[in-house]
Fold:
Amino acid sequence: MKDIAKKANTMYLLEKYNMKATKKFGQNFLIDLNVVQKIVDCTSIDQQTCVIEIGPGIGALTEQLSYRAGHVVSYEIDTRLKDVLNESLQECTNVEVIFQDFLTVDLKQVVHHYKQHYSKVCIVANLPYYITSDILEHIITSQADIDSIHVMVQKEVALKLTDVSYHSPLTFMIESIGQASLDMTVSKNVFSPAPRVDSAILSIKMEKTYNPLLTKILKQAFTQKRKTIYNNLKGLFLENTEKILNECGIDLKTRPEQLTIEDYQKLTHYL
Structure:
């Protein structure tokens, strides 16, 4: 089907297959072709790019990605959408839909496979709000050779993740591998059903390989955000905590969000 994102086409497909968005999977279908095309414009994909999409829904974004990319691999958890996607994407011969929970995908292996055929691999997705952080963490910590990430998230989340004064385990993970930017805002009115809040396109340019030891340090450091870094890291470094923090030049009374990514990188050397 041409121009799936047009409201009339979306409604036709949903009614034909008696489909309704489910809260279980955080589904909100895009119904504005202009917005979908602008989302694709935020990326740098071309015929030498393989796009990995998470949650194609009924294929609105997938279709537009297929016109620009060399290949599109879409992971969908909702098997109810098989018949819908078979019809909506039947003309998109460079699209491969895999019905699997993206969080169980061996992303490093998948990306390695497609890098044999394409010069770039990018992730583009309209993410379910309830699982945004888990998916971003899965992508970053996979150590996959990804060039960039472009995802639709809650506007509030995008603002936090691009605010240099806001710190969390996820912001430190992002900072350790690249740079995040808010590329465009998206009104809640271009979705069906409409969510309660506006969205935004968050882009992350991947510049470095992730250090897996960082996850262990960050999770422990932020165990209790109101406690000092010394109290939180005692659960990891035990009686050596004070010595390690002193060697890293970190004040024992500092709170976890006050440290820098360089501080956390230093701490990984003691694991």
